[in-house]
Automatic annotation (TrEMBL):
Protein name in the entry: Branched-chain amino acid ABC transporter permease
GO cellular component: plasma membrane
Compartment annotation: Cell membrane
CDD domains: TM_PBP1_LivM_like (cd06581)
Domain of life assignment: Bacteria
Keywords: Cell membrane, Membrane, Transmembrane, Transmembrane helix
Residues in coiled coil: none
Chief location bin: membrane
Length: 381
């Protein structure tokens, strides 16, 4: 017989088995809330202090808007496993719905454009109401198109959602002549939209949207959506109402796209149907694919990169689109699963690893003695 050798760990003392410490749910929420508040306060202080000028703050607002668009589309593509190409249509519904609501209510309440700049509780509530209205307009459109369209898969779903987005664009272009009064502004665009977006509003919405999506995907509804993505037939066989959950994911994706559209309207000030064409949907889809299907952090990072990169290359107007395309091609060749794949960052998970001294360098250990004993026993035999 040979003497068994103990496992020798190269790291520090480890917690006893079964006693791994973890953060409570309120502690997790508190940590994330503090992180969000720190980012918002630092950003606002830099804007007020002049470290970030007006142009840069506008670019940051657009970054936040595209983050919402990317993570919302990620619900339908990364989590549900479908391929819709009509996200720009939902964005336009939210943009026009929010803008028209704010313009009409401002006239009723006697609120001027200057009031949105100076800020007041009334204008803040009006903007929040407009964002909700824009999201609901997009959600209703999502229900109308989602129930019949989600019976299709793959290329057929992509074609029908793309057609829907084009129908919405044409309706926004010609509805004024049908109604007999000005509603969307037609080809000239909807003007008179007050400048109601700000760094705090946009990234506050980013935090809320990401929190809601994360909470949904960690619930039983999220697990059902992931089960449909992995194997729809098996999920239906186990009792999952696939039609309901596919529609739920599609409508949630549309609602958040509508909220992003409402923020976009306040950022640019003028809405034209041509902006919400086919290429806008492709642009948002590229952000999701580039970041990693199913990764919220990846979608946020790719939305940030793809929004800032064209602005950073604006001085090279003749070559910036070439450089933009080359970057995308290189990433798709050398990182086809996206920048982060399906990985999602979690600050609370990192803190738990520190609490449990679970470091990469402390996981190395000598091979279990049983394996060596077996070899020695066979050698002695």
């Amino acid at each position: 017989m040979t003497e068994k050798r103990p496992i020798i760990s190269t790291g520090g003392p480890q917690p006893a088995a079964g006693k791994r410490r973890s953060l409570s749910m309120p502690a997790r929420y508190a940590i994330n809330a503090v992180l969000v508040l720190v980012i918002l306060i630092l950003g606002e202080l830099m804007i007020d202090g002049g470290a970030i000028n007006r142009y840069q703050s506008t670019v940051l607002e657009q970054v936040g808007i595209y983050i919402i668009l990317a993570v919302s589309l990620n619900i339908a593509t990364g989590y549900l496993g479908q391929l819709p190409l009509g996200h720009a249509g939902f964005m336009s519904m939210g943009a026009y719905g929010c803008s028209i609501f704010i313009i009409r209510m401002s006239e009723v309440l006697g609120i001027g454009a200057r009031d949105f700049v100076t800020g007041s509780p009334m204008t803040f509530l009006l903007v929040l109401g407009g964002l909700v209205v824009g999201g609901l307009c997009a959600a209703v459109a999502g229900i109308i198109i989602g129930i019949p369209a989600l019976r299709l898969k793959g290329d057929y779903l992509a074609i029908i959602t793309l057609a829907f987005a084009e129908i919405i664009r044409v309706v926004m272009l010609n509805i004024d002549s049908v109604l007999g009064f000005e509603l969307t502004g037609g080809a000239a665009g909807l003007t008179g939209i007050p400048s109601y977006t700000s760094f705090l509003l946009v990234f506050g919405c980013v935090a809320v949207v990401c929190f809601l999506i994360h909470t949904m995907m960690k619930s039983r509804h999220g697990r059902a959506i992931l089960a449909i993505r992995d194997n729809e037939i098996a999920a239906e066989a186990t009792g999952v109402n696939t039609t309901y959950y596919k529609t739920l994911a599609f409508v949630a994706s549309a609602f958040f796209a509508g909220v992003a559209g409402g923020l976009y309207a306040g950022c640019v000030g003028v809405l034209q149907p041509a902006v919400f064409g086919f290429m806008k949907s492709i642009e948002i889809l590229v952000m999701v694919v580039l970041g990693g299907m199913g990764s919220m952090l990846g979608s946020a990072l790719s939305a940030t990169v793809l929004t800032i990169l064209p602005e950073a290359l604006r001085a090279f107007s003749e070559y910036r689109m070439i450089a933009y395309a080359v970057v995308l091609i290189l990433v798709m060749i050398f990182r086809p699963q996206g920048l982060l794949g399906s990985y999602d960052f979690s600050l609370s998970r990192i803190i738990e690893r520190v609490m449990n001294r679970d470091f990469p360098w402390s996981r190395k250990s000598v091979a279990p003695a049983g394996a060596d004993d077996g070899k020695e026993a066979s050698h002695d035999a």
